[in-house]
From TrEMBL:
Belongs to the germin family. It comes from the Eukaryota. Mn(2+) binds at H66, H68, E73, H116. One of its GO terms (molecular function) is manganese ion binding. InterPro entries: Cupin_1, Germin, Germin_Mn-BS, RmlC-like_jellyroll, RmlC_Cupin_sf. It holds the Pfam family Cupin_1. Keywords: Apoplast, Disulfide bond, Manganese, Metal-binding, Secreted, Signal. This is Germin-like protein. Residues 1-22 form the signal peptide. It is found in: Secreted, Extracellular space, Apoplast. Residues 37-154 form the Cupin type-1 domain. Oxalate binds at N63, H68, E73.
Amino acid sequence: MAASTHFLLIAFLALVTSQAIASDPSPLQDFCVADLHSPVKLPGLNTLGISLARIDYAPLGQNPPHTHPRATEILTVLEGTLYVGFVTSNTDNGNKLFAKVLNKGDVFVFPQGLIHFQFNPVHDKPAIAIAALSSQNLGLLLLPTQSLDQSHRSQMMSWLRPSRCKRGQLIGSRLSFGRTTTTK
């Protein structure tokens, strides 16, 4: 009897204490000295708890629906035009799409953990953006094509109606939610 009680107690403690805790690594130094000869990375950001990325979008390119479970993202458009948005996670009142067309100099914030996307609607010009994220360990979850219901797909593509497109542009049919078409 005592052995089974001890076994149950040990099993319970093992289950309770085995939960993973995910967070940014604790900075072990106050600052990081940058390697000025590195053209690829910004080592000066190391241990500051932020990430920075430049994203080049091909004409009609996209960053398909995805989420960052541990970071908020701020996107700034440097060149071109982007159609961006996110879907709320309020299931009581129905998920709502917040989307906007951004031009050079515009900024958009994607809250932590929400599904969001970016799309270059222009058929002949690339777009460039800078994404700043509030974590070094942001996480990236790409969503499968089936994850968004038809109403959200329709909302995302509704702005592509002919009155908003220049003559000769057919871009609504090119917005696919299953693959990335950004350039590197």
